[in-house]
């Protein structure tokens, strides 16, 4: 699954749970982690040190990757490091594609300081831009990340992006012998009480059932037999968040875009809201190129 993992770092990473979670993934799949620091060229960071012109962010980047590398070394993980310049989000996405990484791992925020490039907004941009799976984890002091995942949630609306995410999530669950929870959310908040709204609601319900059936069929192909199927009504992001909390979910695998119309379950805004709000790792998967 994940033989090559890209982990963008900032000054908060060496003490972050996401670094330890990435190391658990690496041990599980015998993977190598590349620690990447992006010196943000959109900011003025050139200074003079001992009469030499130095890029302060690159200098800081060297220190940051060294600290994170020390943690990985202590954890017994194979790693390499790199410091590059660029606009952080597109640089991270392009770097992962150019060097053929299987997974990008990022926290949903970074601390204030000289290299603020890993704030949630940048992570969310990477989620939108990357054609590689992105694992994000919301870092809060009272939260712990569980691995191996025993319960994996796959939200679906049957869209192209959701189908690719489903394949990824089922492959991961099969490797971990995890239970797969399949959730389809009918967003009926905009429906009224007229006949047309009733028909649209019934159509959305059928679509949700069809989407779940497709996941179940593919699960059988992957040899995944432990399944739970659920249809909810309401706000997709809220339904996903509540399902995670109510069912002790360890990870969510979802698409970054979804269908348009009344069954718009996995639109980018829903994926980004899920990334920001749920207290477990979220693996987002983009659709195949047209």
From TrEMBL:
InterPro entries recorded: Rossmann-like_a/b/a_fold, Universal_stress_UspA, UspA
Domain UspA stretches: 1-137, 149-285
CDD domains reported in the protein's UniProt record: USP-like
Signal peptide limits: none
A Pfam family assignment: Usp
Family: Belongs to the universal stress protein A family.
Protein name as annotated: Universal stress protein
Organism, as annotated: Haloferax chudinovii
Lineage: Archaea, Methanobacteriati, Methanobacteriota, Stenosarchaea group, Halobacteria
């Amino acid at each position: 699954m994940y033989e090559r993992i890209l982990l963008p770092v900032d000054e908060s990473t060496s003490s972050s749970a996401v670094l330890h979670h990435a190391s658990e993934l690496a041990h599980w799949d015998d993977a190598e982690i590349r620690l990447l620091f992006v010196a943000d060229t959109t900011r003025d960071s050139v200074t003079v040190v001992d009469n030499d012109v130095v890029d302060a962010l690159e200098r800081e980047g060297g220190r940051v990757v060294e600290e994170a590398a020390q943690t990985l070394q202590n954890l017994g993980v194979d790693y390499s490091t790199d410091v590059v310049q660029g606009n952080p989000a597109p640089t991270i996405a392009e770097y992962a594609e150019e060097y053929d990484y299987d997974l990008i791992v990022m926290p949903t925020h970074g601390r204030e300081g000289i290299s603020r490039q890993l704030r949630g907004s940048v992570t969310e941009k990477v989620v939108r831009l990357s054609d590689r799976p992105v694992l994000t984890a919301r870092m809060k002091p009272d939260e712990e990340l569980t691995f191996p995942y025993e319960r994996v949630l796959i939200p679906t609306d049957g869209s192209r992006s959701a189908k690719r995410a489903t394949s990824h999530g089922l492959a991961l669950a099969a490797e971990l012998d995890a239970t797969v929870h399949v959730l389809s959310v009918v967003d009926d908040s905009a429906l009224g009480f007229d006949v047309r709204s009733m028909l649209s609601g019934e159509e959305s319900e059928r679509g949700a059932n069809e989407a779940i059936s497709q996941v179940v069929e593919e699960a059988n192909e992957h040899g995944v037999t432990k399944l739970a199927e659920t249809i909810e009504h309401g706000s997709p992001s809220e339904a996903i968040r509540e399902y995670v909390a109510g069912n002790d979910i360890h990870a969510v695998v979802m698409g970054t875009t979804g269908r348009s119309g009344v069954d718009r379950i996995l639109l980018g805004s829903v994926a980004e809201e899920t990334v920001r709000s749920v207290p477990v790792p979220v693996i987002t998967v983009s659709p195949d190129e047209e």
